[in-house]
Amino acid sequence: KKPNVAILGATGAVGAEFITLIGERNFPYENLKLLASARSAGTELVVNGQTYVVEEATPESFDGIDIALFAGGSISKTLAPEAAKRGAIVIDNSSAFRMDPEVPLVVPEVNPEDILTHKGIIANPNCSTIIMSLGLKPLHDLSPIKRIIVSTYQAVSGAGKEGIEELENQVREYNEGKEMTANLLPTGSMPKHYPIAFNLIPQIDVFLDNDYTKEEMKMVNETQKILHDDSIQVVPTTIRVPVYRSHSESVLVETEEPVSVEDFRAACANYPGLQVKDNPANQEYPMPLYTSNKNDCEIGRIRKDLYNDKGMNFWIVGDQIRKGAALNALQIAEYIVEKQAF
Ligand code: 11C
Hints:
- The chain is an alpha/beta fold.
- Helix content is 29%, strand content 23%.
- It has helices at residues 13-24, 75-85, 127-142, 160-175, 214-226, 261-269, 288-291, 322-338; strands at residues 5-8, 32-36, 44-47, 50-53, 55-56, 67-70, 89-92, 121-123, 145-154, 233-240, 246-255, 274-276, 297-304, 311-319.
- Residues 72, 95, 126-128, 154, 158-159, 204, 215, 218 line the site of (2R)-2-aminohexanedioic acid.
């Protein structure tokens, strides 16, 4: 059987990607409903050649829905439990339920076994966590991970359509000799905003009491949950860069036992959703311009720590809107459909 599917947040950057991927991947559905907040209701969108009118999302919108793909945002908090109550399996891209012990947090290549433990809601991890996890798991399988030091280089798409528009506008203003307008980054809720064009901003989301940002602590908590090991130490620095839609991460990992570069590279080459691009002699390494609009993440610059034989260094890059959000969620849905577990 095919599921009745709803997409909530259909008019945003992640929602648009859901629609593209549903067509590209031939995702099966019986009926499809596109939902959004009242502001976007009435918009017409085309899916698989058929035009749909976006409806305002209410709790009743989910009556009869088997799988609900939530693009994210604060609307999840109230509507996800309502949808689940009505029998839908919600795959939620917001941060609202990720650390709830009742809610599985899933990267399908890494912990697919958690998917069917859900009680109505399955959480999609934060984009930088998802992308890093694809490089961590093949290493973790060779020798358990003890400690991770990571710096991210995150695209403006992480701040949604508005983030992309802000970078576009600033580049234009700069080229026209005008002052750049900054209204959104690093985060809309704080008083100061800085241009991202020709700049780097070492703040993503708000600061917490420990002087790490919320984005950084997501990488800590979510990585431990996905790998089922709260003893893994994660020390992150998250940075916004003027790139449109792929996140890049420089990752140094310490494992329990030494792992050779050859073994790790071979494990990555065999890992689903991951491509090795690692040939320094030929100047081959992953770059965010070239992973954009692609499903697979790319890993390269694989090399040992200079001083610690249990340390492995790598660089991993992936499309933030695809693997970092919509693709990962849709893969969870595909798993549920394949198992006919709806
Ligand atoms: C960013 N990672 O790049 C954020 C966006 O918890 O899903 C996604 C936030 C989240 O700005």
